[in-house]
Amino acid sequence: GGKGRGNGLHQLDHPTDVLIDKETDSLIICDQENQRIVRWSRRSGTTQGEILIGNIDCLGLAMDEQRYLYVSDWKKGEVRRYQLGEKNGTLVAGDNGQGDGLNQFNKPHYLFVDRQQNVYVSDKNNHRVMKRAKGAKEGIVVAGGQGGGSALTQLNHPNGLFVDTLGTLYVADMGNHRVMRWMQGATQGTVIVGGNGYGAGANQLGVPVGLSFDQRGNLYVADQGNDRVQRFSIEKDL
Prior knowledge:
- By secondary structure, this protein is mostly beta strands.
- The protein folds into two domains: 1-145, TolB, C-terminal domain (Neuraminidase, 6 Propeller); 147-237, Beta Barrel (Thrombin, subunit H).
- The chain is built from one helix and 19 strands.
- The strands form five sheets. A four-stranded antiparallel beta sheet has the order 1-2-3-4, with no helix packed on it. Strands 5-6-7-8 form a four-stranded antiparallel beta sheet, with no helix packed on it. It has a four-stranded antiparallel beta sheet with strand order 9-10-11-12, with no helix packed on it.
- It starts with 14 loop residues before the first strand and ends with a helix.
């Protein structure tokens, strides 16, 4: 990218998610408005990407330990798994068109895949996070699902996800300007960052969309409305 908005191989248009493929030392990018997944080498001198998957209304990406690529298609309301180089993929969640059933999504966005190949999906317009076990016929609600709202049992347009090895879910609760933690099996979450209304204060967020952890357990939040990335030490802040 960096060459203006466009559909050339040297351009991107509204990229919505990115991951690093360490095996090939490359970036895999959801190039949303161009309806494609592209791969860019991180080696110096790279001037353009290559199209891995075309004609897809992608929003979110994830990769498992076997290097399968998972992609959410928000228009079809589904998640597919691809071997790199494959064009059609295998449907793993969202078998029944858009909706609010346990085998449906309404604008699936961010993804997380754990070591058991369980797929977690931020089901944005259903205000919930879904978990689909490998081979299961339908998903289970692991956060939200009580309509959009600000109660501890609710989410409001959830975005970025992270699940730790204990099955604890962290979610960027975009519409509530907070990050929540849901323990495995819990019926309500805990606010760990924000939740003090939209704002630019140190204890506030404004439309948080993405999150990640480093190896030391620091939480990083893409605070979109404030044009910043914030770092939080969860142990210290709680």
